[in-house]
Amino acid sequence: MKKYSVTILLFVLLSIVSLTPASCNGERLERFEESRSLMDTFVTIVIYSSPETAQEAIDAAFTRIEEIETIATTWDIKGEAYRLNESGYMDNPSEELIELIKLSLEYNEITGGCFDITVQPLLELWQYDADDEKQFWELEKSDQLSAIDDAMKLIGSDRIITDGNSIRLKEGSSITLGGIAKGYAADEALETLQSLGIKHALVNAGGDIRTLGTKPGGDGWSIALVNPDDTTQSLATFMVEGQAVTTSGNYERYFNPDKSAHHIINPKTGFSADECISVTIIAESGTRADALATGVFVLGPDDGMALVEKLDNVEALIIDTSRNIYRSSGLSQYMVQD
After folding, report:
1. Of 44, 66, 138, 254, which has the fewest CB atoms closer than 10 Å, so is most exposed?
2. Are 226 and 235 in contact (CB under 8 A)?
3. Angstrom distance (rounded) from CA 242 to CA 188
4. pLDDT at residue number 237
5. In the predicted model, what is the mean pLDDT of the chain?
6. In what order do the strands lie in the sheet with 166-169?
7. CB of 241 within 8 A of CB of 213?
8. pLDDT tens for residues 157-183?
9. Residue 328 — φ and ψ, nearest 5°?
């Protein structure tokens, strides 16, 4: 089963300084950065630390991300979520899997069902299959609708039952954690770094960015949103201090050659969400930003922005399919370039 990941739309503009910065207690800190292939993407960790403890901290953070990947993957037989999909139930799952599912159900309610981890049967319809004479997107619309109607019977938060130390999926249902796992992993990695005494850090899990504090000296982390029509340009630059920034986009991750079907599926229709091309969320945690980016994308620019405005400590920049740009009322506090 192919794993779907959010398109990488963000990159970090990190200052190069000639002098090693000092922390508030006078300790000399150096900048360390390392990238590894994890969670079907590249994960980059940046920290400011003393040289004696830097590698230990970075290794511990990557180990934590590897643990989350093993729990959340739906395409590796070692994964807890994979085994849950295969058997339909799991006794004594890890605390992290229970938390991921409970958080997913919470954001399902917050978004009115537009963020839904039970969309896996719909994703499987659209996925390329070399054994099929015709791919799903090549079928007549009536045949697509018939198959979607059958799959929709397996979709919905009520298909997941958590009871104490067990998780059960109703017959035929399956989950995907692709819309929340990277943000959650970034949060967990930063918690690991913080527990080891790191005070200045950034984790970029394939575009799901989470920051810890500021850079030494008090400067924030500068994050640029790439123009989806011209990746040599940026649409906006944000300055954050401890927040998460996540973007969901409908480009570069298509099912079909003509790019009419992308990987962000509307759980209410069975087809790709079609009102936005990009949604960027700034929130207090990577988990929250990750889930809301997908949910708001499905809701569309008007309903999505209305939801953002109701939520505390959440801001958004939305680009619709006509290239109109929508900004939440509090986004300006993070914008340094537009």
Report:
1. 138
2. yes
3. 14
4. 95
5. 89
6. 89-91, 166-169, 160-163
7. yes
8. 999 999 888 999 999 999 999 999 999
9. -70, 160
With CA atoms as reference, report the closest residue to 104 among 124, 118, 120, 90.
118
Tell me the pLDDT band of 133, cut-offs 50, 70 and 90. Answer: confident
3-state secondary structure of 257: coil
Q: What pLDDT score was predicted for residue 8?
A: 36
For residues 276 and 91, the answer to whether their CB atoms sit within 8 Å is no
DSSP, residue by residue, 184-243: HHHHHHHHHHHHTT--SEEEEETTEEEEES--TTS--EEEEEEETTEEEEEEEEEEESS-
d(Cα 165, Cα 98) in Å, to the nearest integer?
Answer: 8
247 contacts 207 by C-beta, under 8 angstroms: yes
| Cβ neighbours, 10 Å, residue 133 | 6
97 vs 101, 110, 207, 277, 308, CA distance in Å? 6, 20, 22, 30, 26
- Of 99, 116, 98, the C-alpha closest to 107 is 116
pLDDT band at 20 (very low <50, low <70, confident <90, very high): very low
Distance, CA of 239 to CA of 249 (rounded, Å): 21
Q: Read off the pTM.
A: 0.90
CB 40 within 8 A of CB 5: yes
What would the DSSP string read from start to end of 287-312? HHHHHHHHHHHHH-HHHHHHHHHHST
Tokens representing 75?
């395409």
Going by C-alpha positions, the residue among 1, 7, 2 that lies closest to residue 259 is 7
3-state secondary structure (DSSP) of residue 95: helix
CB atoms within 10 A of CB 217: 14
Distance of CA 214 to the CA centre of its chain: 22
